[in-house]
């Protein structure tokens, strides 16, 4: 079977890591027709728009995209492509697993948790205004519909992966209306999943518990800003943004991406670690139904990391991006 997938290779190290990931997927036997799509600073400079309509149309058509990091210009006139993509395509669920990898230095071992973040509401609704000069307001929008669909996503994900527990993270003790609605809605959805344990935790306490003992969590579901912060915290528990994948899922499309930046300090030098993008790509393959290929690539990657002979500089190795990719390809036939 052949697939069409949009490729937003991104800025900085983006093209180097996407190219390695494309090679590994091809070597694993999955035929993909990649549709190159423009986005980010280069698209802004060329078209005056960091997210051209053509890119959105292509993703709506293929329903799937792999995205490298995009440089974001500071200041006004340049909307965040990541936020725009999520809103335009209604990618309402951000799925961020944090799993310990042998061979990757990290503060904890055997961490295996999943952060599910609501991706379209909260403070990211983009509703900000100046009340009077010197006073601004940002609206934090929480809806019952948005809360219900993200809660259902978290429980469905837990069920499909055989996970035991979902924890709703909130601040309903202070934000009684907005987080009260989020918590109430999660409580109601939980009743439809009697096979999954359910509890809730206030966000500040959850942050402390995650750094003291992350093993006590399984699947965590939360609104947008809390998810932004705690998903990065979760990545830190297992070695950082360079080794953690991310998927943005909606009813009509899915965009899989590395969450680290463009690494301008090492861009163009063949030094970047493609692990985060590769794990996002394996998540994408499983989403497409290419589960076996996804698992095979993961097994090869884990074997290379554990062996520790061919690692990139960020993992204290001396291999180039392409050498790391070649080592993974060489392992494909030896893993089951
Ligand atoms: P960054 O993640 O690009 O870099 C931080 C540090 O991590 C650097 O030392 C870099 O070399 C290293 N690093 C990052 N990814 C790596 C990889 N795959 N392999 C090896 N080392 C890696 O963060 P930054 O410097 O704050 O941001 C640079 C640019 O990236 C900015 O324009 C920012 O807006 C953008 N950015 C984009 C995204 C995204 O598109 N998802 C996310 C974060 C930052």
From TrEMBL:
One of the GO biological process terms: isocitrate metabolic process
Statement: the UniProt record of this protein carries the keyword Cell division: no
- What domain of life does the UniProt record list for this protein's source? Bacteria
Q: Indicate the enzyme's highest-level EC class.
A: oxidoreductase
What GO MF terms are annotated? Answer: isocitrate dehydrogenase (NAD+) activity; isocitrate dehydrogenase (NADP+) activity; magnesium ion binding; NAD binding
Q: Which SMART domains match?
A: Iso_dh
Coiled-coil segments: none
As recorded in UniProt, its EC number(s) are: 1.1.1.42
Q: Where is the Isopropylmalate dehydrogenase-like domain?
A: 4-328
Q: What InterPro entries does its record include? A: IsoCit/isopropylmalate_DH_CS, IsoPropMal-DH-like_dom
Answer whether the UniProt record assigns the keyword Oxidoreductase to this protein.
Answer: yes
Q: Which UniProt keywords apply?
A: Oxidoreductase
> Which family does this protein fall into?
Belongs to the isocitrate and isopropylmalate dehydrogenases family.
Official protein name in the record: Isocitrate dehydrogenase [NADP]
Q: Which organism is it from?
A: Bremerella alba
Underlying gene: icd_2
